UniProtKB/TrEMBL annotation:
GO molecular function, one term: metalloendopeptidase activity
Pfam families, per database record: Peptidase_M48, TerB
Organism: Pseudozobellia thermophila
CDD domains the UniProt entry points to: M48_Ste24p_like (cd07325), terB_like (cd07177)
Keywords in alphabetical order: Hydrolase, Metal-binding, Metalloprotease, Protease, Zinc
Keyword Protease found: yes
Domain Co-chaperone DjlA N-terminal: 387-484
Limits of the Peptidase M48 domain: 146-220, 243-327
Cofactor names: Zn(2+)
GO biological process: proteolysis involved in protein catabolic process
GO cellular component terms, semicolon-separated: membrane
The protein's name in its UniProt record: Peptidase family M48
PANTHER family tied to this protein: CONSERVED PROTEIN, METALLOENDOPEPTIDASE OMA1
Amino acid sequence: MSYTSTTLADLQKEHEAAITAAQEEMLQNLNEAQASGDLHRIQEVSVSFQKTTTKLADDYTKRIEEINALNEKTTTEKVADIYTDKRAGINLNHLVYDGDRDYVIEFQNNELIQQTLQKVNETNGKFKSRKHLLKSSLRLTKTLAPMLHEIGEHCKEILRLKADIEFFVYQSDQFNASCYPPDDNRLYIILSSGMLERFSKEELTFVIGHEIGHVLFEHFDYPVRQILDIGQNDLAPIHAMKLYAWHRNAEISADRVGLLCCQDFETAGRTFFKLSSGVTTDSLDFQLNAYIEQFVDLEEALNDANHDPSDWYSSHPFSPLRIKALELFNKSETYASFNDSINGEISEEAMELEIKRIMSLMEPENLEENDEHSEKIQRFMFLGGYLISNADGVVDESEIQALSSIVLPNVFANCMMTIKGLTQDEMIQEVQQLSKDLDLVLSVMQKLNILRDLSIISYADGQIDDSEVNVLYNLARLLRINTDFIDRVISDAQGV
């Protein structure tokens, strides 16, 4: 086929539809061949599918280049218009982290996610933020908390907010802050009593600015947990992975708003330090440069087989990544355009590219077809995913379709051709052998990515049972990763 779309968003939909159609045709032909025991036909189906998907990939790449060449200006203008001035007078399209924005554009053009989002809204109705807050926490009036209201007025002026801010506090020693879905004329910020008592005015300014950032960028539009719960029968694991990746990227955008409000990078760093260490007294001498240097050590630590990095690996970006991303923003021409006291040392393009590289530490590995270990990794993921799906004794068609979303088409075809000829014990034996081979060549971070993706896949239907967890534990042990990591990922997934 020849692709005809004139925008990248439409092209992606067209390409996904073509791949899906090819997979459905392949599955039908493969089932017929397997039923008849025609081994020659099975091989023909696999070869034909590989040729089809290779051509689709080539045509897809070629069309991307054509669209970029012919419509670069149009595409840029479209990107610049996805955020409005509904809530604030600043240029949000200029401020947003590209990784956040790009996922939002993809979600806006993904029919399945939009249909699921509509079901979420119909099922849950409009959340009454203020009513819930008045019942569950204490509203902090200007008389009760004059400092908070000073911070609120400062943020409102800096961001040119078009709504007032109401503050609430609840009893907890944990350091936590959140924002609730806003009304047209009010934003709601809720703080734990522990944070309110132990953070300075400047640090609270960063925290409150960060929470306002979530509101300005309409991050409420994609409630990850509810989308996965409602869409459990429709969405594929790839949707779950993308939603979690967007959730992490959204934090980078919100951090930028926090810095705009507090206007001091060292304050932002000290805030991260308190949140990550729990230490708020003078017992530790905080040094910003030393804290930033932790990012330099992070990759080496993650690749140390004797070190368990699971505490840093969650649905939120871990602190060293966030502070490094914010440091880049603090030195950028982008930030200088919002703050006259800043001399931008880094271009917007260079900043965004480096932050993308940093955030890729928490993304699945980019497995190219010509990577010498790629096929083994994907075979391991396919068989691991199959064993997870079969933990309850039944693997249905939707789960087979889900597995097709995590491996390259030719690997999926080969796996489908051989899977029905294997017993459960034979699959386990192959996974054990693959894990031995991969253990010698994969970094700890690569192993964590594999297990994280398999964990998310197991939760993509909105629930996870003990039998699935046991399979995940066994896969982690085979890769010599602490099983606590599985608990952490599942806990993060359920808490988003």
